[in-house]
Amino acid sequence: MATLVPLDAIATASLREHVHRALRQAILSGQYAPGTRLNERSLAQQLGVSTTPVKEALRQLEADGLVLTKPRSGVIVRFDYAWAEEMILARAAIESTIARLAAQRITDADIPALQQVLDEMRRATADGGVEDLIRLNEVFHDLIRSVARANYLRVLNDRQDVYDSGARRVIHMDPRERQQAFDEHSAVGAAVIARDPAGAEAAMKAHVLRAGESFLTLVFSKEKD
Amino acid sequence: MATLVPLDAIATASLREHVHRALRQAILSGQYAPGTRLNERSLAQQLGVSTTPVKEALRQLEADGLVLTKPRSGVIVRFDYAWAEEMILARAAIESTIARLAAQRITDADIPALQQVLDEMRRATADGGVEDLIRLNEVFHDLIRSVARANYLRVLNDRQDVYDSGARRVIHMDPRERQQAFDEHSAVGAAVIARDPAGAEAAMKAHVLRAGESFLTLVFSKEKD
DNA sequence: ATCTGGTATGTGGTATATCAGATTTCACAA
DNA sequence: TTGTGAAATCTGATATACCACATACCAGAT
Question: Is B188 helix (H, G, I), strand (E, B) or coil?
Fold first, then answer.
């Protein structure tokens, strides 16, 4: 007898979410240069949907800060080096706050799962595939968020993803980067388990900022003003 | 000869912005209890508009984190004590990051304006009206943001307003609160002018957290779990 | 040549109708 | 009484048509 698992998020998402995802990816990966004008009608046509979900997705992108809507004039992409830099600062600020909460609120029941993920990460760092590492990375950060019992902060965090999937893959292939990231994750995990709020906050902030730097130099290689 | 000033933002705002503002205010002021279901059609009818701007405003509220949309089922208000608490943490994290940037990026040309606002605040704290103080508060924080040349962070910041206008007015009437807020603003301003990033960040974080506490105890008086 | 105002066109903004999934209700059988 | 499931109903999701403002362009005046 077959066992069924819940459909994955991508299958159940509404059109609006699909559009949002697609546009977001296109902007972050640089397919739309800063200043590019996005036209509701042509986007709708390209994607084969009506303008309504496109319009809603654009509204979400506006909230994400990736796009600026000039009423009755146009929707303009805003994402460049300085923008990415600020997004990383924001992410560091929010995720470090989450880490602090996690250290304050962790219970004994939370510890085994955290240690298990760190173990898996250690193995994957040494000899795992890139996809595995990316997945574990997600799992780790998710776990911290859930240990922190953070809800609003999580919503905010979800809007701050600067990494497009291509860049993420490239970064996780570099052995030095892998080791560095693992060390940082360990430090965060240790501080959270030790119930050390200040330490967890500092470790997470350092990690996000450092990883962000790697990303910036890779994606905007040397094109800093 | 008459001189004309640009129309006020409220006059040029689109319906969607009006709806967003109205709903936001209603949620923050407690008119909609946590868990309340918001119905697109009835909201549209009450406000005398069609469902389209309502739908878009709800999408914005979702991005603000004030509302949860269950696809094809309903839109639910989520704003309670814990939520407000997290919003304040987030605001402290973001605004302190902005303050740090301001201290790093301030130029000599920025200083006079900052000092002037602080002077005005000093006077208004002692004997000014509540409306004046609220306005100057806005001006001060805006000035810090513009000195920081922060763009993305500003977008984020705009979505983190937890204070409804009624509560803000009450808070600014208390003399002790006024003095305390002024001292904190002074500290932030001094650190920024002194080009002390760490000091500015710490001062701003302390200010936002402390003011947030006042707000929480006022609005959710003692109903903490 | 340059400036002015009108006009055509493009764009997001809004209203409305319809679709399809979620929820509720309730008759009816076990 | 309890559980089942089908139908009615409620709700957001989507498609489409139309509107009003922004912009670009052009003719005519200076």
Answer: helix
Strand-pair partners of A67: A77
- Structure token digits, residue A9: 């998020």
Tokens of A181: 């990231």
User: One digit per residue, pLDDT tens: chain B, 225 residues?
Assistant: 457 777 777 777 889 999 999 999 999 999 999 999 999 999 999 999 999 999 989 999 999 999 999 888 889 999 999 999 999 999 999 999 999 999 999 999 999 999 999 999 999 998 878 999 999 999 999 999 999 999 999 999 988 999 888 889 999 999 999 999 999 999 999 999 999 999 999 999 999 999 999 999 998 875 544
Å from A73 (CA) to D22 (C1')? 6
What residue ranges define each of the domains in chain A, with the CATH number in brackets? 9-77 (1.10.10.10), 81-219 (1.20.120.530)
For residue A102 the two structure tokens come to: 């996690």
Q: Is the CB of A52 under 7 A from strand C?
A: yes
Q: What is the DSSP string of B64-117?
A: HTSEEEETTTEEEE---HHHHHHHHHHHHHHHHHHHHHHHHH--GGGHHHHHHH
Q: How many CA atoms lie within 13 A of B4 on its CB side?
A: 2
Cβ within 8 Å of B, A 34-63: 52, 55-56, 59-60, 63
B105 touching chain A per CB within 8 A: no
**Nucleotides on chain D within 7 angstroms of protein Cβ:** 10-17, 20-23
Window 146-165 of A: residues touching B by CB (8 A cutoff) are 150-153, 155-156, 159
